[in-house]
Every structure is written in structure tokens, then in C-alpha cells.
Design goal:
Elements lengths: L7 H8 L3 E3 L12 H4 L6 E8 L5 E9 L7 H39 L6 E8 L2 E10 L1 H6 L4 H4 L13 H14 L11 H4 L2
Antiparallel strand pairs: 1-2, 2-3, 4-5
Length: 196
């Protein structure tokens, strides 16, 4: 166990920049460090911070050696590149967690929406919209379409038992998917027809 104020990484974090130690045994900051004075006998270290999107240090890329050595500018630049890649991967992962959290909240609101509601994904063939896949549908939307949430999720709109609603829905979604235009479904067919 190394005290929190000792060690290469805590020092790098405190100073907030790259840490390059060519000879740890000769460096008064590290000569009594258990990693240097103990059985591991670390003699050289370079530690590059990994920062998050708020520029806080969340980790490091660290290279250790058991013999004293100078680290070239090229080696340090390569390690900085690795730290930048790690930062990008962490940011992407964090973004994925946030997206999953947002999607879970959205799905919860979506499933309890007081009106029939479905999310459709266009199915394209040679660039043209051929059909729509029901990505999510709430209970009322499923009942209005003559099915259940389980039977309709991940099915094609053409295969859904939507009866007389199939063509107006398909036309509406095709128009939205092709133009990006926001469309109120109630303007395409009246609420009474949808509520059946």
C-alpha cells in the first residue's frame, strides 16, 4: 500500500501536467516511495494525464522502467496521443451511458403516454423507403393497431394489423422520413379514426 501523497500518479495529478522522471532513485520526491525503494525497484517513469470533457484528470497513461532512462520527445508525444485516444473513448462511452439513460427516461414517458404512440424506423431499399419497422409502441398504440406491444415491436408496419390506419400512417411516416418535416398526426386523419 502506497500513501496517497506518494507515488507517480498522485504527483502527476497534483502538478496537473505530464510527469517525466528519468531516475526516480535520484529524485527526492520518489526515492523513499515503496515502488522505488521496495522490491519493484522502479527507476524511471513517464505519466501522461487523461482528462475528461471538463478537463479533470481521470486517469493516466504511465510507462515504468526498472532502469534509469531518458524518455524521448517522440515517446512522450506518442503517449500523449494514446492519452487523447483514451479521452475520446471515455467521452464516447460516457455519451453512450447518457444516451442510454435519456432513452430509458424517454421510454418510460413514452410507454405511459395517454395516447396511442409508436416510433417507426424507415426500412430502405436502394435508398428509397420501402416500409417501416415498429421500433417502440405503447400499449394504447398497440391496442389501436389490433395487436399487443410484444406482437408489434420489431415488426414491419406492413405486417401490423393496423387495418384502415395502415395507409394513412405509412403515408404520414414516409413524408416525415423523406422531408424531415414535423407533422401532426391529427392533421392527417381525425382523432376519432385513430381512437378506434
Amino acid at each position: 500500500s502506497v500513501p496517497n501523497d506518494m507515488g507517480f500518479c498522485p504527483t502527476m495529478i497534483r502538478q496537473g501536467t505530464d510527469l517525466v522522471v528519468p531516475d526516480a532513485e535520484a529524485d527526492p520526491r520518489f526515492r523513499d516511495d515503496p515502488a522505488v525503494a521496495g522490491p519493484h525497484a522502479i527507476r524511471a517513469c513517464v505519466s501522461i494525464p487523461i482528462r475528461d470533457e471538463d478537463d479533470l484528470i481521470v486517469g493516466s497513461i504511465c510507462v515504468l522502467d526498472v532502469v534509469p532512462r531518458e524518455f524521448s520527445d517522440e515517446t512522450i508525444a506518442a503517449l500523449r496521443d494514446v492519452a487523447d485516444q483514451a479521452r475520446e473513448l471515455l467521452a464516447a462511452r460516457l455519451s453512450g451511458f447518457r444516451r442510454e439513460s435519456d432513452e430509458a427516461r424517454y421510454r418510460g414517458a413514452f410507454l405511459t403516454w395517454p395516447e396511442g404512440f409508436a416510433m417507426l424506423e424507415p426500412v430502405r431499399e436502394n435508398g428509397a423507403i420501402r416500409d417501416f419497422r415498429i421500433d417502440h409502441i405503447n400499449d394504447l398504440g398497440a391496442r389501436m393497431s389490433g395487436g399487443t406491444v410484444e406482437s408489434l415491436t420489431d415488426t414491419s408496419l406492413d405486417d401490423a394489423p393496423a387495418g384502415e390506419l395502415r395507409e394513412p400512417l405509412s403515408s404520414l411516416y414516409r413524408r416525415v422520413a423523406e422531408t424531415g418535416e414535423a407533422v401532426d398526426g391529427e392533421s392527417v386523419f381525425d382523432r376519432g379514426a385513430v381512437a378506434r
